[in-house]
Amino acid sequence: MTVPAPNQPLTDAEVAAIKRDFPILQQQVNGHPLAYLDSGATAERPVQVLDAERRFLETDNAAVHRGAHTLAALSTDAYEDARATVARFVGAASPSEVVWTANATDALNLVAYGIANASRGRGGATADRFRIGPGDEVLVTEAEHHANLVPWQELVALTGATLRWVPVADDGTWTAADMVALIGPRTRVVAFAHVSNVTGMIAPVAEVVAAAHEHGALVVLDACQSAPHRPLDLGALDVDFAAFSGHKMLGPNGIGVLWGRQELLDALPPFRTGGSMITTVTMESSDFMPAPERFEAGTQPVSQAVALAEAVRYLERIGTDRVRDHEETLAQRMLEGLAAVPGIRVVGPPVGVPRSGLVAFDVDGVHAHDVSQYLDAQGIAVRSGHHCAQPLHRRLGLTATSRASTYVYTTDEDVDRFLAAVAEVRDYFGASS
């Protein structure tokens, strides 16, 4: 990749050069050049990331934090260097605020079950700050991905607390006022997505954090759709925990990140136990290491961490502000194009209102899966389904939507091909008469 000029919009030539870094995007699908518009589900990987993981496996691979031989030292250094790289990328005060997890879902479960463990007495006095029980409330929104809903359902079921949620408007969005109105002295946890994976709405983080902290509540941020696509400084956002996944940001599967404030991570009881996360073990009891090791039981995702760090460096070379601007410009291009197609209902903010680089929509009279298959026949990959957000779709009166999501390698041509194909769908299925 040729490093683009800083502080300037990505040019067509720059995006084309970036796209050439992705071997998978050079193929044809069903006889057409691939237009990959499903990065919101899984992003593709540039050759630099593929090479970084392969080089590590070929030259340095060994168990980390175990052994005194050369490969063990090289592997441990690479593992911890990756942690430092990701920590810098998200504004962590220290690398030890970054915990490697299996994915973002695992990270959110880690927090929820850690709070559940604290609520039943695990962790001693230092974990008392996390205790919740009958009369306490956990607050989410109706728009959450299941990964940021089901763990909290389980937490209240285990502790006797109450789950409350912010209802969404007819377009699937909510406001700071909606959230703040439900935060009160009984609120102990507020969990929400920084960017919705369905509507593309960008959450009013500052207002929510201020209200939550005024009442002593913890704020847990689902950053899966923000960390890959826009500048992210978790320390400046003042949230308490945040989660995101490697596979959505040009990195590998099998690795995610939990970021948390150091004092909170050190006090939170572990969710998973075993090797690597202990200091002393007797037949009667065990003592746990401080964060982040206390949450990394078992064999660690070492090559995945190395690859994720390379993905971060790739994004940094481009500039995350430029990634954001490129994607948001493409989203507005999609919104304007879809507005000209009869029978299309777009969910989320309308044209002209800031949103992330994804657009979910319903085609009147045609099921989302049929829309996806029609587009796929023309080499255009989009997502169809409820996007792991069934309550949101139920509120919108929909069983499923189609979703086109962009990334740094998405071109104007990709979007224009998508719009032209969507305009043909209703006629093809006989739904326009």
UniProtKB/TrEMBL annotation:
N-terminal signal peptide: none
Aminotransferase class V domain location: 36-418
Cofactor(s) needed: pyridoxal 5'-phosphate
GO MF, one annotated term: cysteine desulfurase activity
InterPro entries per the UniProt record, alphabetical: Aminotrans_V_dom, Aminotrans_V_PyrdxlP_BS, Cys_dSase_SufS, PyrdxlP-dep_Trfase, PyrdxlP-dep_Trfase_major, PyrdxlP-dep_Trfase_small
Catalytic activity: (sulfur carrier)-H + L-cysteine = (sulfur carrier)-SH + L-alanine
Assigned EC number: 2.8.1.7
UniProt xrefs under PROSITE patterns: AA_TRANSFER_CLASS_5 (PS00595)
Pfam families assigned: Aminotran_5
Superkingdom of this protein's organism: Bacteria
Keywords: Pyridoxal phosphate, Transferase
Entry's family note: Belongs to the class-V pyridoxal-phosphate-dependent aminotransferase family. Csd subfamily.
PANTHER family, per the entry: CYSTEINE DESULFURASE, CYSTEINE DESULFURASE 1, CHLOROPLASTIC
Stated role: Catalyzes the removal of elemental sulfur and selenium atoms from L-cysteine, L-cystine, L-selenocysteine, and L-selenocystine to produce L-alanine.
Protein name: Cysteine desulfurase
Provenance organism: Curtobacterium citreum
